[in-house]
Design a protein that fits this description.
The protein is α+β, with helices and mostly antiparallel strands. The chain is built from eleven helices and twelve strands. A hairpin with a 4-residue loop joins strand 1 (about 95) and strand 2 (about 100). It starts with a helix and ends in a 6-residue tail after the last strand.
Length: about 325
């Protein structure tokens, strides 16, 4: 709220004063040099419009605690030819307006897996853009580490017995493990996603069952692993209500790293009427394990309860934040 108040003050008082000052200077210039002043005025007007627009967007949109909520609403927005009453009624029934259909839990699972991968990619972008902070709120030079270690990406590896043997054969040291994955990618046996615009990510429908997702950040020694056979489950509202008491809502930021902004969902509406919260996505993964631990037995690291529960919309997109997590004492 403080940033919004400051933004309003800047837009209401400071920018008009600057505009008057610039106008006075241009008027003086126009009297002495009419033609150059004309072009300068046009250029200055364009610059002010762009700068003002970016500032307004930054204050009211990117800094809003409802940023992720608004992003999710856009992914399943109301068609122009539909009344609000019909829109809300079908949303509560689980209808996906974007795709014009009702999805089963199995169909939502495929879409939620892609959306979960998109969240990892979104997190990676903080590292590529040097926007990760330490406990002193200083930005870290993470882009260099991403490039140095071929990190800050998500690997998707379809698994079979031969491929598991191949990966284990490359575990003599950590660098050999990643070289093994590079070989798989080269032979189209695995995929690497860096940005949300990558064609292989955009075109992948994630309609596989037996694969692993490896989320690698800027540290080459550690990784997060998601086993598609056991990591993730779509829950309906009834199933979620049975375990809700075990979880705490995470809406404030981490002390360091990414996803630090406070994020909220509107408290004065029925979120089901907006097509969100009819389904939930339980995620269980091995967090920050070493490559050796991963190869020798990743499942031993998996907690009993899903470590996170994300809200889903009716189209299978996850709400990045807030989300629910289970305290360590309950796991």
């Amino acid at each position: 709220m403080f940033l919004i108040f400051v933004g309003i003050i800047v837009i209401t008082f400071f920018l008009p004063l600057c505009g008057v000052w610039i106008l006075v200077k241009l008027t003086d210039l126009a009297k002495a040099h009419p033609k150059p002043a004309k072009y300068i005025l046009i250029i200055m007007f364009i610059i002010l419009m762009v700068a003002g627009g970016l500032k307004i967007r930054d204050i009211y949109y990117e800094k809003s605690p409802y940023y992720f909520w608004n992003e999710l609403i856009r992914k399943n927005s109301k068609p122009d030819d539909i009344t609000q009453e019909e829109f809300e009624a079908k949303n509560r029934a689980g209808y996906c307006w974007r795709d014009r259909k009702y999805y089963s839990k199995e169909e939502l699972w495929y879409k939620a897996m892609k959306s979960l991968t998109g969240r990892m990619i979104y997190e990676n972008k903080f590292y590529w853009d040097n926007k990760v902070v330490n406990i002193n709120d200083d930005f870290l030079p993470t882009e260099e580490e991403c490039a140095r270690w071929n990190g800050c990406r998500v690997f998707k590896i379809p698994m079979n017995p031969d491929k598991e043997k191949f990966l284990k054969a490359n575990i003599e040291n950590k660098s050999d493990f990643w070289k093994g994955i590079d070989i798989l990618i080269k032979h189209n046996e695995a995929q690497s996603f860096i940005f949300a615009s990558d064609k292989n990510y955009v075109n992948d429908d994630f309609k596989l069952k037996n694969y692993i997702l490896i989320h690698k950040l800027d540290n080459p020694a550690y990784l997060s692993v998601y086993d598609s056979n056991s990591c993730c489950t779509v829950l309906n509202k009834s199933e979620w209500s049975l375990i809700r008491k075990n979880y705490i809502l995470k809406y404030t930021g981490n002390s360091v790293g990414t996803f630090m902004e406070e994020s909220k969902t509107p408290s004065d509406i029925n979120i089901n009427s907006w097509g969100i919260g009819n389904f939930y996505f339980g995620v269980t993964h091995s967090h920050l394990i070493s490559v050796t631990e991963f190869i020798t037995g990743v499942k031993s690291k998996i907690p009993k309860n899903p470590s996170k529960i994300f809200l889903l919309n009716n189209c299978g997109d996850i709400l990045y934040k807030p989300y629910y997590f289970v305290p360590d004492l309950i796991r």
